[in-house]
Automatic annotation (TrEMBL):
One of its GO terms (cellular component) is cytoplasm. It comes from Candidatus Scalindua rubra. One of its GO terms (biological process) is pentose catabolic process. This is Ribulose-phosphate 3-epimerase. Binds 1 divalent metal cation per subunit. Catalyzes the reversible epimerization of D-ribulose 5-phosphate to D-xylulose 5-phosphate. HAMAP family: RPE. Keywords: Carbohydrate metabolism, Cobalt, Isomerase, Manganese, Metal-binding, Zinc. The active site is at D35, D174. One of its GO terms (molecular function) is metal ion binding. The gene is rpe. It catalyses: D-ribulose 5-phosphate = D-xylulose 5-phosphate.
Length: 226
């Protein structure tokens, strides 16, 4: 398995978004994490397909699109139209009654499909979907804002999900990821780490990304390909 670091642009300077993305790309980032919020599923509004389309034009780094929106089925197409093969589109299990149809509509467009799960949602809710997805995103904060504290109790659920999941399923953690919290998440079985504040609030993005990657490698319970 591979360790991947995903830069959440929620904490990037919005007036310099293009430059910020170029900087993390140059610093060796694996994924660009885009937090899409609708003001209903979460109490915040952020960006949508228009921004995704603009970002797509300026970077080769695959996009890790995190939909925090109600009824994702209604909007899947507006995102899949703007994306391509290596990009991942992730929606929340709590936001739809028919997750399998959302997964299929993402895959029909040749995109990778991910499902996200909130801190207090039970792992059994997604058990049946684990064989149908390309990535599982486990929230370690309540979704809505960057800069919140990592909820350590979620690591028990990550451990269970890693045992339940097919071999090599990417498991991403999102929320409060920093060098001090990565050891718990990596040793529980996560291999993809989304981080906003611990990258964009630093002066040296390369140093920040390498620091996160080093910690994840050091504490990972998985067989890691270098
Ligand atoms: C929260 C978002 C996260 C957030 C992470 O709803 O999904 O991706 O940007 O921010 P940090 O890394 O600052 O906790
Ligand atoms: Zn996110």
């Amino acid at each position: 398995m591979q360790i991947k670091i995903s830069a959440s642009i929620l904490a990037a300077d919005p007036t310099q978004l293009g430059n910020e993305i170029k900087k993390v790309e140059k610093a060796g980032i694996d994924l660009i994490h885009i937090d899409v919020m609708d003001g209903h599923f979460v109490p915040n509004l952020t960006m949508g397909p228009f921004i995704v389309e603009a970002i797509k034009k300026i970077t080769q780094v695959p996009l890790d699109i995190h939909l925090m929106i109600e009824n994702p089925d209604k909007y899947v197409e507006s995102f899949t139209k703007k994306t391509e093969k290596d990009d991942i589109l992730t929606f929340h299990i709590e936001a739809t009654d028919n997750p399998l149809s959302v997964i299929n509509s993402i895959k029909d467009q040749d995109l990778k499909a991910g499902v996200a799960i909130n801190p207090d949602t039970n792992e059994q809710t997604i058990e049946k979907l684990l064989g149908s997805i390309d990535m599982l995103l486990v929230m370690t904060v309540y979704p809505g804002f960057s800069g919140q504290a990592f909820k350590r109790y979620v690591c028990d659920k990550i451990r269970k999900l890693r045992e339940m999941a097919p071999e090599n399923l990417d498991i991403e953690v999102d929320g409060g990821v920093k060098p001090e919290t990565i050891p718990d998440a990596a040793s529980a079985g996560a291999n993809v780490f989304a981080a906003a504040t611990s990258i964009f609030a630093k002066d040296d993005y390369k140093d920040a990304i390498e620091g996160l990657r080093r910690k994840a490698q050091e504490f990972s319970c998985l067989f890691i390909k270098s």
